[in-house]
Amino acid sequence: MKILNVFQTYAYFNKGNTASKIKTISNWLQRRGVQADILAVNYQKWMGASVAVEEGIRTFYLSRFLQLGNITLSIGVWVFCLKELRKYSLVHLYGFYDLLIPAVAFFSRMYKVPYIVEPMGMFRPVAKGVFKKRFYHFVFTDFIVKHAGYFIVSSELEKTDLEVMGVPSHKIVLRRNGLDPDEFKDFPAIGTFRKSLSIPKDCPMILYFGRVVSKKGVDLLIEAFYEISNRAVLVIAGPDNENPGYFKSLKNLVLKANLQERIFFVGPKFGSEKMELYVDADIFALPSRHENFGNVAVEAVACHRPVLITNRCGVAPLIKPAAVIVDCDVESIKMGLIKLLDVEYRKSLQEKCGEVIKGLTWDEPIDQMLRLYKELTEHKSV
Q1: Which of 312, 308, 315 is closest to 359 using CA atoms?
Q2: What is the rounded average pLDDT for all residues in the chain?
Q3: In terms of C-beta density within 10 A (0-12 exposed, 13-18 middle, 19 or more buried), how is residue 279 classed?
Q4: 59: Cβ–Cβ under 8 A, 6 or more apart, which residues?
Q5: Share of the chain residues as helix, strand and coil, in percent rounded to the nearest 5
Q6: What is the pTM of this model?
Q7: What H or E segment, with its residue span, contains residue 378?
Q8: Per-residue model confidence as pLDDT tens digits over 202-223
């Protein structure tokens, strides 16, 4: 079996959790004897195409002819599809709101190559650019939905989103995300990150790690932290350039509360620096207003860190033994933080982290995907 994974911004976010997920899935598929290639856009080139091979995975990079934000028009997709698409057993489309997806969906339909769509929480317009997203739905979504074999969602919350937007229930498959335990075998020494900001060892550190955008609820976390700021520090890590106006409002909120010495914005962290953040934290917080899954919460649990998470996050039920699940409002988040500041209670949750993670590897989701792939490819050949 030969699978083409399509994710336009794979290169743009090549160190982020979304791109890492697609790379990890491709690796796990190849371990099962499935060739899994990736089709993406190289944002640095406006002409030509290239192929890169990493860990046995071929990635075809198309050039961007025109670009608006992260969205690109790539003429190369037509050439690629005409030459290469018929060689694949199935296409797996990741994300939404880009021009690569409808183009590949069109050629997949033309060549009778089945395709699956995995929107990764992007399907329902809930964040910025709502009007543009609705226009995209108006132009492309009917065709994409009509001819898709399945839509994969990672939580009941995301399933409801798709149903509200008109995707037939029989086309929606719930498949959770997973974790690669090999990435969490070796932890860095504790204290490296704290030392960089002169955070005392005995001062509880609350960590938020993710995109700094409104739907992630970072403003709620800052307001909740205000009343307990004399007891801890708050570290906010992640890309902050996606919504400059929102980021500025957060900085103003910190200044107004005079918390510059207790709240730290440290920008995006990857690789070993990300792991240093996790192991130095005492509490991981995910205060999202809307989160289809929440991979970072699983990563925190893998690092044996208890989690505060809102009930708007799809992963919340899966990590419940190692988490405090709260409503998505300032008071509830504050009370959850107060609960987690109790050392003995934190330890009781930490002791359950290992068992939680055992049930969250990629083995089961990959088995499920292979069954879907087999069903669609066999149906095609009938």
Answers
A1: 315
A2: 91
A3: middle
A4: 10, 37, 38, 39, 40, 51, 52, 53
A5: 45, 20, 30
A6: 0.87
A7: helix 363-381
A8: 999 999 999 999 999 999 999 9
For 11, 65, 83, 98, 128, the CA distances from 133, given in Å and listed in that order, are: 22, 21, 30, 10, 9
Condensed to tens digits (0 to 9), the pLDDT of residues 293-320 reads: 999 999 999 999 999 999 999 999 999 9
Q: With 60 as the cut, is the pLDDT of residue 16 above it?
A: no
Domain boundaries, the chain: 2-178+362-381, 181-358
**Beta bridge partner(s), residue 38:** 5, 59
Q: Which two tokens stand for residue 52?
A: 């890169």
- Rounded to whole angstroms, the Cα distance separating 225 from 232 reads 9
CATH 3.40.50.2000 fits 2-178+362-381, yes or no: yes
Q: Which CATH class is domain 181-358?
A: alpha beta
Distance CA(378)–CA(376), nearest Å, equals: 6
Dihedral over alpha carbons 361, 362, 365, 367 (to 10 degrees): -120
Q: Which pLDDT band holds residue 127 (cuts at 50, 70, 90)?
A: low
Polymer length in residues for the chain? 382
Q: Please state the φ and ψ torsions of residue 47, each to the nearest 5 degrees.
A: -145, 145
- Asked if the model's pLDDT at residue 381 lies above 50, the reply is no
CB atoms within 10 A of CB 295: 20
Tell me which H or E stretch contains 208: strand 205-209
159's tokens: 């399933």
pLDDT category of residue 11 using cuts at 50, 70 and 90: low
